[in-house]
Amino acid sequence: MKKIDGSPKSLKQLLQNTKYSIHYYQREYMWQRKHIEELIDDLTSEFLDYYVPGGDRRDVQDYGAYFMGSIVLAGRENAIIDGQQRFSSLTLLLMYLNNRLHALGQSNSLIEQMIYSEAYGTKSFNINVEERADCMNAIFNDTSFDTTNAGESVRNLYDRYNDIIDIFPNDDITDDMLLYFCDWLAERVFFIEIVATTEQDAHKIFVTMNDRGLSLTSTEMLKGYLLSEIKDDSKREKLNNLWKDKVLLLKKEDDKGDETFIKAWLRAQYAETIRETKAGAVNQDFDLIGGSFHKWVRDERDKLGLVSTDDFENFIMRFSKFADVYMKIREAENTFAEETKYVYYNAQVNFTLQPQLLLASICYEDSWSVITEKMNLVARFIDLLITARVTNYRSVEYSTIKNYVFNVTKNIRRCSVDELKKRLKLQYENLSYNPATALPELRLNSFTKKYIKNILARITGYIEEQTGVASNYCNYMNTQTKNPFEIEHIITDHYEWFTDEYADQEEFKRWRNSIGALLLLHKSINASLNDSKYEYKLSKYCSNEGNIYTESLGDSAYQNNPKFKKFISDNNLNFKPYSRFGKAEITERVQLLVQLVELVWNEGMFEG
Fold first, then answer.
1. Is the pLDDT of residue 4 over 90?
2. pLDDT in tens, 177-204
3. Which one of 9, 45, 171, 585 is least enclosed by Cβ atoms within 10 Å?
4. pLDDT by residue (tens digit) across 513-535?
């Protein structure tokens, strides 16, 4: 190698008015929601450790630093050989902060200079990848972007930006703290920048760092610690092989799957404490497990009952059993199956704390039939929890709800089935959820969109099941098809057509976005009805191009459909056709939804 330079650089020093390229063979941006959650949680928690209310922004220079690892660069083009996932993700975070500041009527020129730079009157993004440009422009300008025909990296970028909107802890880092957080992120978050003269040398550095054992993972260090305490050579070899086999399976679909599982397992079964949600609070069990969990196990060996060699053997056997349970959970999250459908439902709205809660009630001695029963009970509670919170505009994102979920985790830990039912029912009662008061206020916006779609899909699928038709829920939620289902506004966005009924644009918007004025339709049909009046839309709703909930707006749904009519009669439901659709009809439709929500989500779910 000709020359290697390595030095610590702040995010500001790395990104401000500096261009980077990503070569064609490394352009895929692959981070998923869980990676963004961990990044946001780590950064915001670290910032809150140092933030002092009422201080001056100049005080941020004395805040503690956060180390993001190394970035390996090559040549004059600043080609990123290692680190583009973190760099791209941090750029998305900067864009979110920039957009949030603009919404508050504020700005931070430094943040903008870290996102893009200008030369000869032309602006371009500092991480310069041509196929990302349209998506990045949409994000930067806070406008929508259609990912239908986009490549995987672009879809991931857009999805992860929307994840940041969901995940960022606005209740902890409030508007008045935002500029402080921006300063800290720019000035006190550091990388080690490693620069090689040639791209070939940079790749050699990358391979050396990753292939020569310079840094073992927490999983490897945990295995080493546990095996070192087992005296019998033959047992140690057998358990080592068992551990390796499970880790290979855990990493089959996700190269960090082993670490994700171990964190969920330790938190579910062993953690006793969690950091308080206030500035200056100290990391506790839950938070420490999220970092170097191998060190936490070693430090807390007494709490975990790790005393004799038999205890360490048993711990590895537990690891193996719970790894199998976790893989069953992951399968249930990704593939619809009737016996685990609630696990699947919760995964469709990205409830990432689900594995932790599902693992909590499991006992090592449980049979697979008992494990499945417990999983279903807890998944049903999660389903109720999500619906109860989001219909009251309360977030279920990781940073907002992790403390509550952790308390539930401890409450249901290693319960019998009967005790689990009692405790979950009590947890549900403590939510004090009343659809009759929540749903009339529920409207479509950027926060509620995916949850309203899920509610409409669940209700429609439920009606289908109750009327002898296979539920089409999976298709309603699938966004990867050529013609996915989308939320349809029954009322066309033309206020001038409805001035006799709505006092102003704001009132019109509120009623139009009411959940009672929304349906699910195929994207192609939805687009074709954009500027149509209700009478024409109704003909399309009733022409078998929608679904039973959509069709119920017209007379045809109630003709020659005895099973649907029996379903209505048996449950005393307020279904009826409408020749027009205004405030009165929306109000009635909301009341119908209240009835349907009470059928789909209720405490009786814990009896099943």
1. no
2. 999 999 999 999 999 888 887 766 766 6
3. 171
4. 999 999 999 888 877 777 889 99
At residue 217, the 3 state secondary structure works out as coil
Residue 23 pLDDT: 63
Could you give the CA distance from residue 216 to residue 295 in angstroms, rounded to a whole number? 13
For 72, the token pair is 């390996």
> Of 212, 232, 330, 261, which Cα lies nearest the Cα of 240?
232
**What are residue 111's phi and psi, to 5 degrees?**
-60, -45
**Cβ(350)–Cβ(159) under 8 Å?**
no
Nearest to 272, CA basis, from 424, 409, 420: 409
119 — phi, psi (to 5°)?
Answer: -140, 130
Helix, strand, coil in percent for the chain, rounding step 5: 60, 10, 30
Phi and psi, residue 489, nearest 5°:
-80, 120
35-394-517-441 Cα dihedral, nearest 10 degrees: -170
Q: Rounded to an integer, what distance in angstroms lies between the CA atom of residue 284 and that of residue 410? A: 15
CA distance 580 to 530: 17
Q: Which of 418, 402, 410, 256 is CA-nearest to residue 330?
A: 256
Name the average pLDDT for the chain: 89
The residues, ordered by sequence, that sit 6+ positions from 25 with a Cβ below 8 Å of its Cβ are: none
Decide if 233 contacts 304 (C-beta within 8 A): no
DSSP strands (E only) in 185-266? 189-196
d(CA 419, CA 413): 10
pLDDT at 208 > cutoff 80: no
> Has residue 224 got a pLDDT over 90?
no
Q: What is the dihedral of CA 80, 83, 86, 88, to 10 degrees?
A: 10
3-state DSSP call for residue 295?
helix
Instruction: Please report the DSSP string for 527-560 in residue order.
Output: HHTTT--HHHHHHHHTTTSS-HHHHTTSGGGGSS
| Predicted pLDDT at 254 | 87
CA distance 17 to 149: 31
The better pLDDT of the pair 231, 427 is held by 427
Between CA 37 and CA 59 the distance in angstroms is 27
Cα–Cα distance measured from residue 452 to residue 487, given in angstroms and rounded to the nearest whole number: 8
* pTM of structure: 0.75
Q: Which two tokens stand for residue 199?
A: 């791209």
| 544 and 551 Cβ atoms separated by less than 8 Å | yes
Which residue in 208, 168, 196 sits closest to 447, CA to CA? 168
| Digit-coded pLDDT (tens) for 535-583 | 988 888 887 666 899 999 999 889 888 999 999 999 999 999 999 999 9
* Whether the Cβ atoms of residue 594 and residue 436 lie closer than 8 Å to each other: yes
- The pLDDT, as a whole number, for residue 213 is 43
As a whole number of angstroms, the distance between CA 131 and CA 244 comes to: 39
Q: Encode pLDDT of 46-72 as tens digits.
A: 899 899 888 899 999 999 999 988 888
Cβ atoms of 518 and 550 within 8 Å: the answer is no
Average pLDDT of span 148-176? 89
Cβ-based neighbours of 337, under 8 Å, separated by 6 or more: 344
Q: Are 426 and 415 in contact (CB under 8 A)?
A: no
